[in-house]
Design goal:
about 30% helix, 10 strands, Nucleotidyltransferase, domain 5, five-stranded mixed sheet, about 30% strand, 7 helices, globular, alpha/beta
Length: about 220
């Protein structure tokens, strides 16, 4: 099973080709430019590095959100185009699930936080039980203080929102707050591909025509 996965949910952009439990090729970029300027070039790069063509792929995976409104539209529309042209299936993956998965096997409660602007974060909470990720909160957009105010046990925070609001979180819950290392705060496309694998193997894929960004809060023209 060879999957090409894309993440454009935040300021970073990541593309990977994964086969079963092996990363064949992956590239991640973090620069202050719209993803439309480099996404297709990054896809070409991983295809060239892997020596594969689109016809040799088995499917596509993409983060559906939450995250940047513009970024999500770019990633999803690109992957929908590849899926439509090739006739291959596609799976949409939560950006919060992806961040949590990158903290695999943590014994702490895990809470990914993505910057939602307007002094808010997108957040959810998870636990690893017997090696499996279990979601405890549906994704929400609230203030960082509200996102942590009821935590009464050690919690590992991950994501750009955790970095931005680290001091506020510490002020709120003190020593219960732990923070993932910097390299885990960026969503990796290989993680997106890994999460999608079970769904591909059970044919639990998405209808390409119905895949849309999951914004959590209503889009308005002043949001990015």
């Amino acid at each position: 099973m060879r999957i090409l996965a894309v993440d454009t949910a935040t300021k970073s952009c990541s593309v990977a080709i994964v086969e079963k439990e092996s990363i064949i090729a992956e590239t991640t970029l973090f620069i202050e430019q719209t993803h439309s300027k480099h996404l297709m070039e990054m896809i070409d790069t991983v295809l060239n590095l892997s020596g594969l063509t689109v016809s040799e792929l088995d499917g596509f995976a993409v983060t559906r959100g939450p995250g940047s409104f513009t970024g999500l539209r770019i990633g999803i529309s690109s992957i929908k185009g590849f899926a439509m042209a090739s006739g291959k299936p596609v799976v949409g993956v939560s950006s919060l699930d992806s961040l949590a998965m990158q903290c695999g096997f943590s014994s702490y409660l895990v809470s990914p936080l993505l910057d939602a602007r307007k002094e808010e974060v997108y957040f959810s909470r998870y636990r690893f039980e017997n090696g499996y990720l279990k979601k405890e909160f549906r994704g929400q957009a609230i203030s960082p203080v509200q996102a942590v105010c009821d935590i009464n046990e050690p919690c590992l925070f991950v994501g750009d929102g955790a970095k931005i609001y680290q001091n506020k979180i510490k002020d709120q819950i003190g020593d219960l707050a732990h923070f993932a290392p910097f390299y885990q705060n960026t969503i990796r496309a290989s993680t997106v591909a890994h999460i999608s694998m079970d769904r591909f193997e059970t044919n639990d894929t998405d209808d390409n025509s119905l895949i849309v960004p999951h914004y959590i809060r209503k889009f308005s023209s002043c949001n990015h």
